[in-house]
Amino acid sequence: MTIDPGSGFATAADLAAAIRGGELSAVDAYDLHVARLSRLNPSLNAVVIPNPQARDRALAADAALARGESWGLLHGVPVTIKDIFDVQGLRNTAGYLPARDNVSTTNATVVQRVLDAGAVILGKTNVPLLCYDWQCDSPIFGRTNNPWNLDRTPGGSTGGGAAALAAGLTPLEIGSDAAGSIRIPAHFCGVFGLKPTEHRVSGAGHGELPGAPPRGLRHMVSFGPLARNVADLRLALTLLEGPDGRHSEVPPVPPIAPMREPPAAGEVRIAWMDALPQGPVASETAHVVRAAAASLEAAGCTVERIGPPDFDLQDALELWGEINGFEMGVMTPAPIRMLLRHGTYFGLGRTRWTRGLRGGLAMDPKRFVRALAARDGMIAALELFLDRFDAWMLPVSPTAAFPHMRSGKPILIDGVKVAYTTAVGAYSAPFNLTGNPVVTVPAGQTSDGMPVGVQLIGRRWGDDALLATAERVSLILGPFRAPPGY
Description:
two-stranded antiparallel ribbon; 15 strands; alpha/beta
């Protein structure tokens, strides 16, 4: 194996192998990424909280290897962490001004697990206010730009991490996803992202800010990696998954395999749609999805243009809003809850989705239980559909990365104004509602050179098989491509 130390685009697995094999020291890997950060981060604003202890950690990793010790699968490998997870000794702000000086005294579970595997945490990546947007403009640190076009958003809320990956500032990012916050930035920046099955990975230490109420969001949030290939997503999930004693919802399911050969193309069964009924999609996005389906079929995969019968996108979005609004609102002080309920929710436009959010803020427990029962029905229907397929392939978002703009403003899709929530998150949030694992895979580009991904939805708890399918799909559609000039 040969790694160009000046490229910055080695995968986490390749860096780990090079460090173990003596081709590259942990300090070399650290210095390489810091040099790229110094040169490229000022224009991107992706990594916003550097770790002053990182080089000492790299030195210690090299010393440990010299003694014949191995810390784990990421020994000496630089990684970044989304600025909503606790990293002991670093600030944890979630883009929230009252928390700008909050310093974590413990590690989030996912952070501790990558540290236990030997990783070197370079720093933390930028997020929007309280991670509640699909753009990445922090009231504390400012705006993050997309390396494919600095005038475009990298997406949100894991926007800083996706931009850092695409620009070669980090080989691995740990993020979170409640309505596309891993998948949409991965799609906008041309990288890979994994939203694991709900509750497969503990969220302990995520969003635990001073003065914040006890954890209210207990459904629809997942925690997982972004990377530059599927193998690194798999590697990261092997480290992150499993119970921790801090969040009781995480069950002791059988772990995924650290390595697994992808199935032959002839063994892969893909359902796909380039648009959902009642779901807008830009013509160029739809074209990329159709081209991806054609490439898979030409390679020998079985592909079928179909979706689950009676799958209603608008019902799913309103239901997501009701559950999220109730769980968030029940812990929100009454004056703020009333303000949100009677205003246009977070300025995001008037849609079935925001109607659900506003209704959820005022929902009584009986209606909440009925909403959970409706969610169970949608889960069962999707699982039944997926019995016939290895994955369901859809657009990640109706559009590619769009120019920086005021959040909530309608977005033009093929000349038609579409409400902000629908225009960005309509294809991602339904699978937070159902809790299915989803992998974002780069699939093509628009005519102006912006990346477009597809999302592959798998059966609940079928993360292992889904990653194997995603590996075969990525081998057919092509590897990560760096943005021009990087």
